[in-house]
């Protein structure tokens, strides 16, 4: 089993580093639109890294499965990664994959809901 708590902590460290880079290193280099993409990517990375931390704990407590964590992590990589890439010069059409990451993150949260409802029903 993967250590999802450790992976979440790495995501948080990356979010802090990329947030600082966006605030101090990109300000005078990229357009306002590109900076907005960077901030959006960093916000979603932070929020979902924190969520992944909680999911890691829930996996250890057997309240959910690793599927939840995988959906969130792959969603984070695709969603935030595509926005970071576009900010750094990837073609704008690259943004067409961004919603795929968003859908995977939504699926991760829904899978968490489903798995916890199933657990609750099995305890009744």
From TrEMBL:
Record keywords: Membrane, Transmembrane, Transmembrane helix
Keyword presence, Transmembrane helix: yes
Keyword Transmembrane: yes
Location of this chain's protein in the cell: Membrane
Stored Pfam families: DUF423 (PF04241)
Cellular component GO terms held in the UniProt record: plasma membrane
Stored InterPro entries: DUF423 (IPR006696)
Lipid bilayer topology: Multi-pass membrane protein
Transmembrane segments: 41-61, 68-87, 93-114
Similarity comment: family membership: Belongs to the UPF0382 family.
Protein name, UniProt field: DUF423 domain-containing protein
């Amino acid at each position: 089993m993967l250590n999802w708590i450790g992976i979440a902590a790495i995501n948080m460290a990356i979010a802090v580093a990329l947030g600082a880079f966006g605030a101090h290193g990109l300000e005078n280099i990229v357009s306002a639109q590109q900076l907005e993409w960077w901030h959006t990517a960093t916000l979603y990375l932070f929020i979902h890294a924190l969520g992944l931390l909680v999911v890691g704990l829930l996996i250890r407590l057997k309240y959910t499965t690793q599927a939840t964590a995988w959906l969130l992590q792959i969603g984070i990589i695709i969603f935030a990664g595509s926005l970071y890439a576009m900010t750094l010069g990837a073609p704008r059409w690259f943004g067409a994959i961004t919603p795929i990451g968003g859908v995977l993150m939504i699926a991760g949260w829904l899978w968490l809901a489903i798995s916890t409802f199933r657990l609750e029903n099995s305890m009744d």
